[in-house]
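Pair request: fold both.
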Amino acid sequence: MKNVIKCNVCGHEQEKGLTCSKCGSKIRVNPYYTNKFKTNPNKRHDYRHVLTESSSMNLFERIQWNGVTAGIIFYIIVSIVITMAGGLLGYGTHIIVMQDVNAASLFFVISGIAKLFGLISALIPIASGFWAVYNITTRDYVTGIVTGGMVGVIIGILFGILSLTVGLLFSGFYGQINIGAGIISGLMVLITSTIYGGAITAAGGLIAVYVRKHSSYI
């Protein structure tokens, strides 16, 4: 018989891992919660006490890195797809205009499609935070917020570093801006993208937890 680990909070049994795959709480030795579960089996589907169990965890412990990884991969893949689709749309529009094939009549449709792509691009960060929390099965709002938010923080840092690097290379090759100004502008982009990205993806994580707690869709 395989050794199983029993969650102190909801009683779920699994063969490995220190995070419950059902309720998302940390599995730790705590006789109080174990006995509470045994004496009251109805608690199996009541997750309100997860907040009490997880209150001793700091923010870093609440971050579920498998969810963060899933959110980052989702963000990258969807961004690439949307960028390629937008590029093809722009190229097709250019061909239509160059051939003068009744371009005026297609302007309304093309502008509508462009707005749709813009809306989708704006929703990608929220969807990424949502997807990150979707993959970790937590019902804790704080865990959902910090896990979803970490997706945007990491992406923001990477984008900021890329902007800083490109700015420094541009100033070095062309000498059109002062290196100090390039560093300052790059750092501003880094800070802004990190804060903004983290806030937006955290909202997605919050939405995912809310949907999970109030529906059976995820």
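--- second member of the pair ---
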Amino acid sequence: MNIIIVGNGKVGYTLAQYLSKDGHDIIILDRNQQALNRASETLDVMCVRGNGANVKTLIEAGVETADVIVAVTGNDELNMVCCLAAKQLGAKYSIANPERTTAQEISRLLRFPFAINIESFAHGRVEMVEFRTEDRDAILNTPLSRLHSRYPRIQFTAVQRSGDAFIPDGNSILLPGDRVYATGDRESVTQFFKHLGKDTQRLKSALLIGGGHISYYLAKIIAGMGVYLRLIEIDEKKCLRLADQLDGVMVINADGTDQEVLESENVGDCGALICLTNRDEENLITGMYGARHGVKKVIVKVNRLNAMDVMEDLGIDSAVSPKLTTANAILRSVRALNDSRNSVVEKVYGMLGGQVEAYEFTALEGAPYLNIPLNQLNIRKGILVSVLVRERKCIIPFGSDRIEAGDTVILTAKAGTVVNLEDAFDITEIRR
């Protein structure tokens, strides 16, 4: 596909990197010549200097023949204008910044206080939950092949140890401090963590700091879940508007980053503290304060991606970046538009700092990998068939299981190694 990316910051560069590897023709449009030089020197892309909202610049970039235009500048208004102009000039699809997606990501994190990340697949039937192993966990120092017999409804799909991520096999073992993804249907995942002694109690109260768009969408989602929710916003006009728009939410006009305010709201007693101001430093400091006062679940929003690298050192496990969320959402959208003869891409999810990806495919009739036992499919190294969903039933696959037409197939693999479902297998061996 012909794809124009407007904005060559970290999100734009990351998208160009992934999408060019997928075989798409990429044009990057940006006003910063230095950023364009970097992209031109390190990626297989074309670069155009100019304003993405300018009609002449869009035409120069070939917008009339573009399949997709993606606007990821730091200015939301510019992104929207760019997308509207591109559609009028002939671009087939346009994608801009989805703040609602970030709110949905946060709402999933509130399900388990111990979870670092949670992602759902197959219309919510499958969940991947990232957690950190502890010394007392009963799953340590045991080959995964033995753990599978103990937990047949759970698949351990990805592990990160000392900063390096890998796809485990039956001989792999888990060590204290590993970041691990456990995957299965919702009920089995809940039961697994109960067995480990992790806290699976439903969230009862939450405190939101900051009253922007993400806070609004998040409040709408979790207020309907029976959670006692307070939202602190320093701007009085915003408070009045939010109080009018949000039912069942206590809106407080105060500085939520002020420790005296947090003490007066008994921050240590709330189930979750979610810091969503527009300043990374304030979110980090407020999050650290909450963690030190015993809040079970602290989530902070960071705009600068390098800030996520210091989260662990500060005692904060869960951080969300609208930029990364945007990149993942756009990557999913573009890949879903890219037709495949033997499978349909439903979802792509970046994991463990982007080192690993999870993919959701629908297997189509006539594919060469259908109805063959998985242990005969020559699955490529570093790729795991994690879950099959057939007629709404989740199957943790073993060697004798087969992929059938119409199945939802969820893979995990090292980032950039899979575009189509066929990529998981050595098709030349199958066709012999």
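Observation on the second member. The chain has 13 helices and 21 strands.
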